[in-house]
Design brief:
Layout (H helix, E strand, L loop, with lengths): L26 H11 L29 H12 L6 E2 L13 H5 L3 H4 L11 H18 L3 E2 L6 H15 L5 E5 L4 H11 L5 E5 L10 H10 L4 E7 L10 H11 L2 E6 L24 E5 L15 E5 L16 E6 L5 E6 L5 H4 L12 H37 L5 E3 L9 E6 L3 H10 L2 E2 L2 E2 L9 E5 L6 H14 L29 H12 L22 H7 L2 H4 L11 H18 L3 E3 L5 H18 L8 E5 L5 H9 L4 E3 L2 E8 L9 H11 L3 E7 L11 H10 L3 E5 L12 H4 L3 E5 L16 E5 L11 E5 L2 E5 L15 H37 L5 E2 L12 E3 L3 H9 L4 H13 L7 E2 L7 E3 L7 H20 L18 H6 L20 H6 L2 H13 L1
Parallel strand pairs: 1-13, 3-4, 3-5, 5-6, 6-7, 17-19, 17-20, 20-21, 21-22
Antiparallel strand pairs: 2-8, 7-8, 9-10, 11-12, 12-15, 14-15, 16-23, 18-19, 22-23, 24-25, 26-27, 27-29, 28-29
Helix pairs in contact: 1-23, 5-11, 5-14, 6-7, 8-9, 15-23, 17-23, 18-19, 23-26
């Protein structure tokens, strides 16, 4: 039996899976492409980059592992973790994973697809998000559930920020101390240096609850500046708050109520739904929650699923426009067929830039997909069973633990649901340690949450059994003394319980599998063909990465488990740190961020900490950003606290840098800007290579000038696929950079997330790094925090499962493979550019002979624009229409209208053969012929997708954001399957387009 027999797939049946470095092009094809672009070696691809910033050698982490060795490596590593009977769950519960979830997570048409910016070719993803939004809506009673935030902690920050936008001219939110400490740390970290003020309302030490009178007093004392009040349904002692009284306080004060909920506990027979909070059942204004446990195991704390909801009904239709994140709406296509689309997008970073409501780009889309499927898989009865299993075990444990002399209910008269907290009179850490030796993670020491008591918290769900509880009792019998005292179980008031059924439908496993399988056919995948989205790096996502991340030794580890029991996890994080030090050339690596945009925020928060530490925090108030930057850059700057404004004629915040005719930052103009703002410059954010696919050859000179005024340099690493292993970022003068693991490092996009990122930093910033660092002593791994750490950006340790995927990918590449990955990506783009630049004009103007790296931008001629206009199509929509013409050939569209309004940005990656690139070239040339000879067809594109052109205007005007599910919808079918379209010649497809247009 070989290692491959363990796999849930056969790699020999997958065209790309066993290719060295996952590069499909043969050596002959690579040589042919080199001949076409006029080079002799991979090194020649980087000859235009100053030698002083190139790496001296390949990344130093060994040679690639062969496939079977790679399987053995990750399997053996996962077995180093110790899984034990566990009563951990504080802040992140663990439930059984519904059988449907692994099935859905293996549907590649869903897992590998991009964010649904092209709704006609993304109906599969959009329907998965609709099922998620609708099921959460049914559980909570909230009409509007967004497509997810990173996790509960960052979700809470977004909700607090939303409250300040809803109630104008206010900036303060009261937050209950009952919020989980990890969430509170994230909230404090992100609000630092911004206009958002957080006031902490302590819990009553006797009852363990929010004191209503104290809350009322704090509200009244701060009413003038107060935006909202965030409180928990179940606080961090595991106790049930009087959510009705707390909601009433908010309505009385005319501030926003932000309820922090656990969706699993809202099942039928569970806790009252937040839409009915308050003495008049008016409901909370917003909800925040964690949803990871609806779908997957704890995965060492990540990635998370930030649930956010807001009311959208006849009484309140405006508040939603102050929120962040994506919403999915139901509308129609141009034929009147039901179609879904993202709505309210004008709030988002890619459109509003520095005026966006948030910098969020990647979210947790696929965890939301899995959560929606998981809820449907459980159904009404299964959700109740899972919910009440924890309740029943918790009540039984409460009674049994009360019989020990050393254990006393910490809050004996306060109701709880599925978590219990006990005061312990002995050495609590010793008890926890001895329990671990006996194979039990007994609970969490939460003594720091109380002024005087030594407290042990235990969490219960459907993951534990009666045998687990008996094992716990047997251990306690061996260590403690019984007094068999009787206690009264505190009853849950009827006002805090759910009194009506949720009404979730009951489907068979086969019905759900069939539905989600069909959804997968409605998207396209980089498994099958080039996915030409520029600046998105839609490369092949190896199956083995997902297999590694799915190993139980990784998935079932809890972030609060003792370090000695998660040594494999710490080794993964340590290896990630070391590999990326070698890849970037930078001495510090942060593994906590869960998206590129969050990596940007980490970088700017580090800038602020550095300047504050030097006493310059107030005066360093200018940030330089090129005009061509990703929208996340200016949005992140605003989110970090760099507000763009003029006060008494003095500029603050973002100063935009223009490009020269060759597509690089205008260096002379840049020098003038630095001279003007000088010591006020906090830093600069530069994407390199930039969004035109052009390397900023003056980068080091720019960095040197910024450093001369004690500014700092952030490099947006979204395009690292072009330079990884070749360019030394430390030599370039980079102080912070993020690497998108869901781009360069092969993580699936999941229809919009989860993303992931690491951030590399220079020595200037190492003392301030957030989250944990892992160090190695002999064969032992342990964690520590940087001595001036700015805090945290995730309630735990980030997206650990994606670190497993990334580790597996890099081990498959080795140091030489990292270089080859980037080189072939650049070669593929140069080859396409060489073949297309004489057919299409290129952008930026005047840059046709400037070397391109991994991507490039095409446009059309003025004469062609005129033909399109004469066909009745406005120039403003022409590029978007051309993008949809790509869908008619079975492809996804390039990136349209960014960074050039009239541009099509194309990035092929290294994953595709020359034959596949040649086929793509023929399609792109055929599209040019259609534009010239049949421009009228652009009025009716796309023609063969499951739905026609979606009427997004109407979907935004008449918002429908969820529905009460009773049955599966009847799904539209592809008019012609993408695979069939790709099997046809471009001329044959054109004939079908013309026939469809005339029909």
């Amino acid at each position: 039996m070989t290692r491959r027999s363990n796999l849930p797939y056969n790699p020999e049946n997958l065209d790309r899976e066993l290719k060295p470095y996952y590069i499909t092009a043969t050596e002959q094809e690579i040589n042919e492409m080199m001949d076409t672009v006029g080079i002799n070696s991979f090194q020649d691809l980087f000859s235009h980059i100053p030698k002083e910033i190139l790496m001296d050698q390949k990344p130093q982490f060994g040679d690639r592992l062969e496939y079977d060795d790679l399987i053995a490596d990750v399997e053996n590593l996962s077995k180093k973790n110790n899984l034990k009977t566990s009563f951990l769950g504080d802040g992140l519960q663990q439930y059984k994973v519904p059988p449907i979830v692994p099935f859905v997570c293996d549907i590649r048409g869903l897992t590998t697809a991009y964010t649904p910016y092209q709704p006609e070719r993304s109906q599969g993803t959009l329907w998965t998000m609709w099922m998620y939004s609708s099921t959460i809506s049914m559980l909570t009673g909230f009409e509007a559930i967004n497509a997810s935030f990173y996790e509960r902690a960052t979700c809470l920050f977004e909700a607090c920020s939303t409250a300040t936008r809803i109630k104008k001219k206010t900036n303060t939110v009261i937050v209950s101390a009952g919020v989980h400490p990890g969430d509170m740390e994230v909230l404090k970290t992100q609000s630092l240096e911004t206009n958002l003020e957080i006031l902490i309302l302590p819990l009553d030490q006797e009852t363990g609850l929010t004191n209503i009178e104290a809350a009322k007093q704090m509200i009244n004392d701060n009413l003038e500046d107060l935006s909202g009040f965030a409180f928990c349904q179940v606080n961090n002692f595991g106790l049930l708050e009087d959510v009705n009284a707390l909601t009433d306080l908010c309505y009385d004060a005319e501030i926003q109520s932000i309820a922090i909920i656990d969706p699993m506990l809202l099942a039928t027979e569970g806790l009252v739904q937040p839409s009915l909070y308050g003495s008049n059942d008016q409901g909370a204004h917003m909800i925040v929650g964690e949803g990871q446990h609806l779908a997957i195991g704890p995965n060492y704390g990540g990635p998370g699923l930030g649930i956010f909801g807001i009311r959208y009904n006849e009484k309140n239709k405006l508040s939603i426009r102050s929120t962040a994140g994506r919403f999915i709406g139901k509308g129609k296509d141009d034929k009147g067929k039901t179609a879904l689309a993202m709505v309210l997008s004008t709030r988002e970073q890619h459109i509003r830039r520095e005026k966006a409501t948030s910098n969020i780009c990647s979210n947790q889309s696929y965890i939301a997909t899995a959560a929606g499927a998981g809820i449907l898989g459980r159904g009404e009865s299964g959700m109740t069973e899972a919910c009440m299993a924890g309740r029943e075990l918790a009540t039984q444990a409460f009674i049994e633990l009360s019989k020990y002399a050393e254990l006393t209910p910490a809050f004996p008269h306060t109701p709880f649901f599925n978590e219990i907290t006990f005061e312990f009179t002995g050495n609590l850490e010793q008890l926890i340690s001895e329990a671990s030796k006996a194979g039990i993670h007994i609970g969490l020491n939460i003594s720091k949450r109380h002024d005087s008591k030594s407290l042990l918290k235990l969490s219960f769900s459907d993951i534990q059994t009666d045998d687990d509880l008996n094992k716990l009792m047997e251990f306690l019998d061996s260590k403690l003394n019984r007094n068999d005292s009787e206690v009264d179980l505190p009853e849950i008031p009827e006002t805090l319980r759910r009194l009506s059924a949720v009404g979730l439908p009951e489907f068979t496993q086969e019905e759900i599998q069939s539905f989600y399988t069909e959804l997968g056919t409605m998207n396209v995948s980089p498994d099958d063909s080039i996915y030409p989205l520029g600046s998105c790096t839609m490369k092949y996502n190896p199956y083995i990465n997902d297999y590694a991340a799915s190993l139980t030794g990784f998935t079932d580890t809890h972030p609060q488990a003792p370090e000695e029991d998660v040594q494999a996890n710490l080794e993964i994080l340590f290896e990630t740190q070391e590999m990326f030090k070698s890849i970037t050339g930078l001495p510090g690596i942060i593994t906590q961020p869960v998206a590129g945009a969050q990596g940007e925020l980490v970088g700017l928060k580090l800038f602020q900490a550095y300047h504050q530490d030097k006493g310059n925090g107030e005066t360093k108030n200018i940030l330089l950003i090129p005009k061509s930057a990703h929208g996340t850059n200016p949005a992140t700057a605003t989110m970090a606290g760099y507000q763009t404004k003029k006060v008494a004629g003095v500029e603050y915040g973002i100063i935009t840098l223009e490009a020269n005719d060759h597509g690089e930052i205008d260096f002379e103009r840049f020098q003038e800007v630095v001279a003007k703002y000088s010591e006020r410059i906090a830093g600069i954010m530069i994407t390199n290579p930039n969004t035109a696919g052009i390397f900023e050859t003056n980068f080091k000179a720019i960095a040197d000038l910024i450093h001369s005024v004690d500014g700092l340099v952030y490099m947006d690493g979204a395009n690292m696929n072009a330079i990884a292993g070749w360019v030394d970022l430390d030599k370039m003068g980079v102080d912070a950079v993020h690497n998108n693991l869901h781009k360069t490092w092969s993580i699936p996009h999941g229809g919009g997330g989860p993303g992931d990122a690491i951030v590399g930093v220079s020595t200037r910033l190492m003392d301030f790094m957030p989250g944990i660092q892992v160090e190695k002593h002999g064969e032992k791994f342990s964690t520590f925090k940087a001595k001036k750490s700015i805090g945290s950006f995730h309630r735990h340790h980030g997206n650990f499962a994606h670190k497993v995927r990334c580790y597996t990918y890099i081990k498959a590449l080795g140091g030489e493979g990292v270089r080859r990955m980037s080189a072939v990506a650049v070669l593929s783009a140069k080859y396409l550019y060489e073949k297309l630049k004489d057919t299409y004009p290129t952008l930026p103007p005047g840059s046709v002979d400037v070397p391109r790296m991994h991507e490039f931008i095409l446009t059309i001629t003025d004469d062609e624009f005129s033909k399109i206009i004469n066909a009745g199509i406005p120039k403003s929509t022409a590029i978007a229409k051309i993008g949809k013409l790509f869908l008619d050939f079975g492809l996804h569209a390039p990136t349209v209208a960014f960074p050039e309004v009239y541009g099509l940005m194309i990035e092929p990656t290294e994953s595709f053969s020359k034959a596949e690139l040649d086929a793509f070239i023929e399609v792109v040339k055929e599209i040019k012929l259609i534009i010239n000879e049949h421009p009228q067809v652009l009025a009716t594109v796309p023609h063969f997708t499951p739905v026609g052109k979606v009427d997004e205007v109407s979907a935004n005007k008449n918002l429908v954001l969820s529905e009460s599910l009773t049955s599966f919808p009847q799904l539209p079918k592809n008019v012609i399957e993408p695979g069939v379209l790709m099997s046809l010649t471009p001329k044959e497809v054109t004939t079908k387009i013309l026939d469809s247009h005339e029909a």
